[in-house]
Amino acid sequence: MTSPIPTASIPPPSGQQPLLSLRGVSKTFGAVRALTDVDLDICAGEVVALLGDNGAGKSTLVKTLSGVHPPDSGTITFDGAPVNITSPGESRSLGIATVYQDLALCDNLDVVANLFLGHERTRFTLSEEDMEEQAWSLLRQLSAKIPSVRTLVAGLSGGQRQTVAIARSLIGDPSIIILDEPTAALGVEQTAEVLNLIERLRDRGHGVLLITHNMADVREVADRAVVLRLGRNNGVFRVKDVTHEEIVAAITGAADSAVTRRAAATAATAASQNTEGVAP
Fold it and tell me: In a 3-state reduction of DSSP, which class is residue 119?
């Protein structure tokens, strides 16, 4: 198995201060250590791919950031200040929005109703006009291809459904958006549509954490890739500087692989040349 490589070995873009940082985050469920001393940085205007096999700890990390499973130890800082995320409400109030793989959409409701489910706008009575106007505004921000905000979600394609879920996450103007397998089970055209949405989120200044098994998606939109293996950091790379084989080696734990040697050399260079904005 490769030696774990700390997340901080590859600085964020241009050495900028991360918007969200995790240092030494651990989580245990009974005798199972789901996360052990995990580090993670996400900057504004950056897409970070979170990679790893099943059981690597990706879902636990997402739920930790979402407030579902508060960490047992470690520190989380948001916009430079330490924070405690102990509930989904606290996560959302900080500016972290999570779009889970199941999307949690109601097929029997239209787009407007799904966007504002639980967040209805009222003026003594339900204001349909205001919600419809806001729905169009959210969809225009994403250049979404939705025929009508009054279309039932049951009649939308997979890519359109993902668009609705992402648009809903923008309510409250979050700084960080977590996308859990957003292109799973989508066709080529629908996948391209969702990847375009992710690029628009980055262009609008959001930090995006993309959980995926699709290496093509990583190549298309991610700036950096963070690899977890058995609940620990096992590599972090600038996507443009690493090969597919090297990322796979980090995911699978290939012994004495090129990825270990290359990442160690990159870490040493980064530490000597550019450590600004990276926690020790």
Answer: coil
What stretch of H or E contains 234? strand 232-238
Report the b/e string of 241-276 with b at 16+ CB within 10 A: ebeeebbebbbbebeebebbebbeebbeebeeeeee
18-53 confidence digits (pLDDT tens): 999 999 999 999 999 999 999 999 999 999 999 999
Residue with tokens 């279309």: 151
Let me know how long the chain is: 280
Domain holding 20, by residue range, is 1-95+176-183+210-263
Residue 84 located in a structural domain: yes
- CATH number of domain containing 62: 3.40.50.300
Q: Is the pTM of this model over 0.90?
A: no
Count of domains forming the chain: 1
| pLDDT tens per residue, range 124-145 | 455 788 889 889 998 988 888 8
Domain membership of residue 203 (yes or no) is: no
- Nearest in space to 78 (alpha carbons), one of 94, 54, 56: 94
Q: Do residues 158 and 187 lie in contact, with contact meaning Cβ atoms separated by under 8 Å?
A: yes
